[in-house]
Amino acid sequence: MIKLTNVTKIYKTGVRALNDVNLTIEPGEFVYVIGTTGAGKSTFIKLLYREEKATSGKVEVVGQDVSKIRNSKVPYFRRNIGVVFQNFRLLPKKTVFENVAYALEVIDTPRAEIRRRVRATLELVGLEDKVNAFPHELSGGQQQRVAIARAIVNRPKVLIADEPTGNLDPETSKEIINVLLRINEEQGTTVLVVTHDQKIVQEHKRRTILMEDGCINADTSLGGYDL
Amino acid sequence: MKELISCIKNLPKHFKTSLVNLWRNGAMTFSSIFAVTITLLLIGVISVLALNVQDISANIEEGVRIYVKLERSIDENAENEVGKQIKQLKGVASATYFSKDEELSKLIDKQGEDGKELFESYRDDNPLGAAYEVEAKDPTKLASLAKKIKDIPNVNSVNYGGDSTQSMVSTLNTIQTSGTVFIVGLVIVALFMISNTIKITITARSTEISIMRMVGASNWYIRIPFMLEGMLIGLFGAIIPIFVLVYGYGALYNYTGGSLMSSMLVLKAPMPFIRDFSFILAGLGAGVGLIGSFVSIRRFLKF
Predict the structure, then answer these.
(1) Minimal CB count within 10 Å: which of B15, B56, B181, B192?
(2) Does B2 contact A at CB distance below 8 Å?
(3) Membrane-crossing residues (chain A) (predicted)?
(4) CA A158 to CA A193: how far, in whole Å?
(5) Residue at B164 is within a domain
(6) B115 and B255 together in one domain
(7) Within a 10 A sphere around the Cβ of A187, how many other Cβ atoms?
(8) Per-residue pLDDT for chain A (227 aa), expressed as one digit of tens each?
(9) A108 and chain B in contact, CB less than 8 A
């Protein structure tokens, strides 16, 4: 599903963010990516959704060589991937329903189908009673659940979550991780969670990748933070 | 191409989205529309004035004639011969013939009741010669044309008001050119201001655009609602200026009776003029809004 071969990323500023990284993630896996700030976690996932291009090496996501995708085709490529951010990134002037529906509207889904799928997805994340609220009327945890709903409503093969619990309290964080685990189990979506949250990684042990100085320092299916 | 077609198919939906966005971005929308209103009002009022000044100066210019008096002694054939020669000169737009009798009648009419009897006695032995009223194609070349006419045989005198007419004509010409430059300059400034306003509204929403891209919206899918919003802002911004012009100019026209001071200073009739001008204002607002958003959003759609 995701395959990195000898990937190096050097920014224009000269910063060497990734250094000869090799990695394979199989379909249906649930993977944590952990590491200190500046270890290259963000660069790693930015390469996956083509926000950045690798300086050298090959990045393959859902069978496509990411660096070969033409700029104009990037939106089409991104429909295969759902992304959730620490700061939610919801469209501020759209309601919960419209935010989630937007991901379907852009791929010309028929209206009836949009209604059906948005409702089903909001139920999955537990927000069916907030359909007509605007983002600023919701709590952080609720906003993050809307963001997750938007990311998965078009059934992407990969879901990438960049510090999804970074702005949330422990109780809410637990809920969010549970939602992500459910998506992984029920829909078979490959889920990648970048996190700092030791508690979460300990509690739900899954494959964990530790990054340090642009390299993968440990990769264990045992899970846990003490690598 | 495919995505463009799908976006055109989605145009009604995009249109609805734009209206909803305008409504939900209330304060931003209002201030942009207000800025466009002020700009269009400015160009509207000033252009209407400038166009009228141009029209009036063109009118005055057209009114300038060379008055050619012929010798008294010559017969009708010789008079016609002079007319022919005048018409052959380069730069002559028209030459109207007045016979000796007509000239005397004009003179008598000018004298009023008192002089009428006195001058009527000249009917049998007319002291005046025939005349031509010559209209120049280019009023700025009045003097040289008058000189050429003077050289034609049997021409007694030529009168065009002398240097003062000449300098008036060149002043009017300056007014017309500078008026045109002024309007063009103003339109450019307006275009700049409107597109800048649109740019600000788009920049304020750059995160929104990046989110849309994140979710997989194609560039055209993002762009079209913004372009429609820009167009609507321009269009809404034109409403008040159009109202002001239609009612304001109509009132001015009625109040002055269509002319200022003398019949030479004629205002443009409101009907086709203001209507056409309103369309131009609305088109200007909408067009600049549309193109301005297209240009401004490009920056945020680069991968």
Answers:
(1) B181
(2) no
(3) none
(4) 11
(5) no
(6) no
(7) 15
(8) 899 999 999 999 988 889 999 999 999 999 999 988 888 888 999 999 988 889 999 999 998 999 888 888 888 899 999 999 988 999 998 999 999 999 998 888 899 999 999 999 999 888 989 999 999 999 999 999 999 999 999 999 999 999 998 888 888 898 899 999 999 998 899 999 998 888 888 888 899 999 988 888 888 876 666 65
(9) yes
Query: To probe the interface with A, which of B5, B207, B215 has the most A CB atoms within 10 Å?
Result: B215
Does B30 fall in a domain?
Answer: yes
In A, residues 116-155, which contact B (CB 8 Å cutoff)?
A: 150, 154
Both B194 and B295 in one domain: the answer is yes
Q: Domain for residue B202, yes or no?
A: yes
CB-CB neighbors (< 8 A) of A102 in chain B? 212, 215, 217
Nearest to B216 among A71, A75, A91 (CB): A75
Measured between beta carbons, the chain B residues lying within 8 angstroms of A75 are: 213, 216-219, 221
Q: Considering the domain delimited by A1-80+192-221, tell me its CATH architecture.
A: 3-Layer(aba) Sandwich (3.40)
Contact at 8 Å (CB) between B233 and B32?
yes
Looking at the structure of chain B, the number of domains it has is: 2
Alpha helix positions (H), chain A: 41-48, 74-78, 96-105, 111-124, 140-152, 170-187, 198-203
User: The tokens of B115 are what?
Assistant: 């002089």
Paired strand residues for A192: A31, A160
Q: Which of A112, A93, A108 is nearest to B8 (CA)?
A: A108
Contact: A71, B13; criterion CB under 8 Å = no
pTM: 0.74
| Cβ–Cβ contact B24 with A under 8 A | yes
Is the four-CA dihedral A71, A73, A77, A78 of positive or negative sign? positive
Q: What is the ipTM of this complex?
A: 0.81
Q: Where are the domains of chain A?
A: 1-80+192-221
CA distance A52 to chain B (A): 9
- Tell me whether B13 touches chain A (CB under 8 Å): yes
CA–CA distances in Å: residue A95 to residues A88, A90, A138: 14, 9, 11
Q: What is the DSSP string of A141-155?
A: HHHHHHHHHHHHTT-
Instruction: Collect all residues of chain A within an 8 Å Cβ-Cβ radius of residue B29.
Output: none
